[in-house]
Structures are given as C-alpha cells and as structure tokens.
Predict the 3D structure of the following.
Amino acid sequence: MNLRHKRFFRYMAVGGSTFLFDLSLLWIQIEKFHVYYLHAAASSFLFAVSVNYFLSRRWVFKGSQRRLASGYLYFLKTAVSGALMTGFLMWIFCATTNEPYLLVRIIIAGIIGAGNYLFNLYLNFKVAGQEL
C-alpha cells in the first residue's frame, strides 16, 4: 500500500470514529436534552473536530510543519467554517426535505469531509508526499 492510500485510510478511520462520536453527541443533545438541532449540530461538530485534530496530528499527519498550538488554532478556524457550512446545509436539507436529521448529517459529512482531507494534507499539516 502506498503512502497516499495509507494516509487516506488512516484519515478515514479517525474521521469515521470521530464522526460517530459527533453523531452520538448530536443525538444525545437533541433527544435527551432537547437542544435546538442547529445548535446541537454546531456544538457536537466542534467538539468532535477537536478530538479529530489531536488524533489526526498524532496518527494521520505525522511530521506536521506547524506547531501544536498554531496548528490547532488554524484547524479550529477551518472547523468553525465547517460548522457554519454544516449548520447551513442542515438548515437547507431539513427545511426542504422530510429526511431525518441524522441522515442529513451523514450526507453533509461526506461533502465536508472530502474537502477537509485535502485542505489538511496540503495546507494545514503540510505533509503531502512525506512519509508517515
């Protein structure tokens, strides 16, 4: 398996597990605590993405040229953009379809996740082409 495939599969493993964590937090907030779905989606996303950063930095994007604190702040800026986009897309899809919010969230994750991988590989962690 070449470097690109290995890194991508690691990214998928980290992203998939933190996404399940995100969905669990979303469900708990909405179903158990009756938090408004857009607020719940944003907060669960931001919390899960923080976990994702630390796992990704350690296991997926080893050898990052950014320092931990500055990389995390850069990552959070991107995450806030992702959270806003997630909320906007959830609002659009939930308002215009009768699809369940969890299904909508899964679809949105695929859209945002693909862009995030490329962004992190080339711009945030700057490890494209480096060994793991």
Observations:
- Residues 86 and 108 are 7 Å apart (CA to CA).
